[in-house]
Model the fold of this input.
Amino acid sequence: MKIISVVGARPNFMKIAPLVASIKKYNSKNKSKSLEHILVHTGQHYDVRLSESFFQDLNIPQPDINLEIGSGSHAEQVGLTMIAFEKVLREHKPDWVVVLGDVNATLACSVTAKKENIKCCHVEAGLRSGDMTMPEEINRLVTDRLSDLLLTPDRISGENLRREGVPEEKIRFVGNIMIDTLEANRERAARMNIQDIIQINSIKNETKPGTQGPVTTPYALMTMHRPSNVDQKEVLEPLVNFLIEEVAGQMPLIWPIHPRAIKQIKAFGLWEKAEASSNMVLLHPLGYHDMLRLNMDAKIMLTDSGGLQEECCVLGTPCLTLRWNTERPVTLREHGGASILVGNNVDRIREEFRKTLAHGAVPKSPELWDGHTADRIVELFAGEFYS
Ligand code: UD1
Done:
């Protein structure tokens, strides 16, 4: 059986790593009916810190094919990916295309596969935020509608698919593949030194060497990159002011900044103020182990990332999710997780920030978030779906 799997942007890389490792393990034990695997990178993320560093840190082999589509509008990214991926499919004629998560590569390659009459498997199927202004929600809906095999990370996602009329035989509950990566890398991350991570990745040190001092505990950790939070000045400005004055007013705030966020912060004239605050620890985007290490000891997380919501759930880090909705309700406090939705209204964030500081870490691994999801996926391909 020949499988092409596709990655495009940062959150895909921690999901493909365990799948590549499981296929390799399966093939070493089953030489006569091995799975042929071709890894395609669409090239949506191309910076070393957003792409290559994850391949190195997580032992992902170099992609067999890189479509090098780069940055652009959504239509440009999706269109260019489809044109390039169609050629790949016609040349390699795989039995299955495997897409992961909800980025533009997921949408572009599931549509292209189905138009070429190739079966498509979606890893992380069934997540729904209900928010059609999120590009990721559109990607999820289209991909799930088209896919032949929908692999869900939790039981709520399976119910979402059933409600939409997806036939039972297409749905398999396999667990959360990103947690395979977390479990496989916990020990290595735990051995890392927090002050080294800060010094090596500091933005302040680049402009004025030696200006970033050591970070004391407790500290807060944050990330923010969603267009809904960073693209409008009237949203971003009060958020950044709150972060500088009220969060960093109490404790160091470590912020690895996504390229989209840094561009907007600078465009809206907020950068100098952030840089001038001694408690604002401004970092470049971090590698996988660096981020995991900082998360392990954080007093509180503020983020609009879905992946970090999940990692906080398993590590127990109290998490303020800077969104009004989530496609990952299993990570919320009402389901035993660590996260609470606070949106991007400063009054609401302030109130929950104050209350949440009283919380300690409460780790929770939802059902099948056990580090063995990729093995379950490979078993499916090797067994039931073997053609
Ligand atoms: C994408 C995903 C999002 C995911 C996020 C993680 C989609 C629809 N969005 O959003 O779901 O949470 O990745 O990072 O697929 N840029 C660089 N270097 C790069 C890539 C991008 O500097 O290697 C800059 C460019 O200016 C670009 C901007 O970041 O315009 C945004 O990149 P883009 O790939 O469009 O989307 P993300 O916001 O990263």
Summary: Residues 2-176+369-382 form a domain with the Rossmann fold fold (CATH 3.40.50.2000). The chain has a mean pLDDT of 97. The two ends are 7 Å apart (CA to CA).
